[in-house]
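TICKET: design request
STATUS: open
ATTACHED STRUCTURE:
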């Protein structure tokens, strides 16, 4: 149980951290990508504004490096420029380091000019092919491969301006990989820390549970002796003084105490005992346990409707599994309010699913959540069934978990349904 708790703590911490890391990485990547693309669009817009058809030759040294899009006159290039007030002014160094391409088309679709930049990375043929595909899209701006493009309709020609994003894309990919590696390393460290913290958190609970189980086992064994002594003394008094009301009360309460001790020891064995590894024909076992309860049910005018699929096998202890089935049948017979009990066993995927159904008094979710607690009894069962101590379902739960299975209680349409799921024997 506590190993499952540890795993849940570690899983919750790791899943939360992993989700947080992925969300952070994706947010950083997407926001950075959007910001870079926005800046590239603005630089491309500036490039298009400065573009003048016919001035396609590279500029002499000292000019802005764009040739065909000067924004200063030749005779005043040493004078300070007036700052742009259109919100799209970019750092001139970044602007000059960027690689721009352009293709100008006449109204008839004839190529008027091709600017393949100064890098020589793109040939005119590839630029013409890219520009043609952009025009076929019919969009004014967007992305085509590693190119961000802008299409502007001028008075007598159409301009397709492009900026190469290869370096930016590579930098983005490298940044994402580095963040992923660093984040993975940090996640591994945090997993180790979470395992350590989970052990620290669960250890006191585990030790306390062990002490409680040890106390139950020790108390059960210690109580067996005085119970036996009381029983023997009662028998001697009955022989010498004869039967009396007080001796009958002593025997009755002593018998109840003896039953309680037996259940405590059964619970201790179910929780702490070693599970025997044997193949159990669960179908045959369930049929065998239903048979003796049919006569008890007949005395109470109750019918047991059994639907057991043949050949369902599990691995574990036949004794504990018999006790599990017996507890569920006894619970249905003792606390049921109808005249029929349903028992079914079927294969569901890789599990053997046993269900015991009976009509019962209405139970709210709070009661259902405590049914498997030790010594828990509803008010009705406490007042009407003094032979029950609220340990049966706890024993059933311990037996199911010892076999790697689960048990749950549901209440629907006036019926209580107890469902046990156990792993089938692998053949």
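STATUS: resolved
RESOLUTION: sequence designed for all positions
ATTACHED SEQUENCE:
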């Amino acid at each position: 149980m506590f190993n499952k708790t540890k795993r849940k703590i570690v899983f919750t911490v790791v899943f939360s951290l992993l989700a947080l890391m992925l969300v952070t990485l994706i947010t950083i990547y997407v926001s950075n990508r959007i910001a870079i693309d926005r800046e590239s669009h603005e630089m491309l817009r500036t490039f298009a504004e400065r573009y003048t058809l016919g001035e396609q030759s590279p500029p002499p040294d000292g000019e802005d490096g764009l040739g065909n899009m000067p924004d200063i006159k030749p005779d005043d290039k040493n004078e300070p420029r007036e700052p742009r007030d259109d919100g799209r002014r970019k750092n001139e160094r970044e602007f000059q380091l960027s690689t721009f391409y352009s293709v100008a088309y006449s109204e008839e679709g004839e190529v008027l000019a091709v600017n393949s930049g100064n890098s020589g990375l793109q040939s005119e043929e590839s630029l013409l092919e890219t520009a043609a595909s952009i025009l076929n899209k019919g969009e004014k701006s967007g992305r085509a491969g590693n190119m961000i493009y802008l299409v502007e309709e001028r008075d007598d020609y159409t301009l397709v301006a492009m900026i190469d994003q290869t370096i930016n894309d590579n930098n983005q990919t490298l940044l994402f990989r580095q963040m992923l590696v660093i984040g993975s390393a940090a996640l591994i460290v945090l997993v180790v820390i979470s395992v350590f913290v989970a052990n620290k958190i669960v250890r006191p609970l585990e030790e306390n549970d062990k002490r409680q189980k040890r106390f139950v086992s020790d108390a059960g064994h210690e109580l067996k002796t005085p119970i036996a002594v009381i029983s023997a003394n009662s028998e001697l008094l009955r022989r010498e003084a004869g039967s009396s009301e007080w001796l009958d009360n002593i025997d009755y309460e002593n018998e109840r105490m003896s039953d309680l001790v037996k259940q405590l020891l059964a619970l201790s064995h179910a929780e702490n005992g070693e599970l025997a590894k044997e193949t159990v024909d669960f179908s045959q076992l369930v049929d065998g346990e239903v048979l003796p309860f049919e006569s008890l049910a007949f005395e109470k005018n109750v019918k047991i409707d059994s639907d057991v699929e043949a050949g369902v096998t599990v691995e574990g202890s036949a004794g504990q599994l018999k006790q599990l089935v017996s507890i569920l049948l006894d619970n249905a017979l003792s606390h049921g309010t109808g005249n029929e009990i349903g028992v079914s066993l079927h294969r569901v995927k890789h599990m053997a699913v046993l269900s015991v159904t009976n009509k019962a008094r209405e139970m709210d979710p709070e009661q259902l959540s405590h049914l498997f607690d030790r010594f828990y009894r509803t008010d009705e069962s406490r007042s009407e069934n003094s032979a029950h101590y609220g340990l049966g379902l706890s024993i059933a739960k311990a037996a199911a978990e010892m076999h790697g299975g689960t048990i749950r209680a549901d209440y629907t349409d006036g019926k209580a349904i107890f469902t046990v799921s156990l792993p089938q024997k692998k053949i």
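CLOSING REMARK: Residues 56-90, 380-386 have pLDDT under 50 and may be disordered. The chain has three domains: 2-164, 197-273, 274-423.
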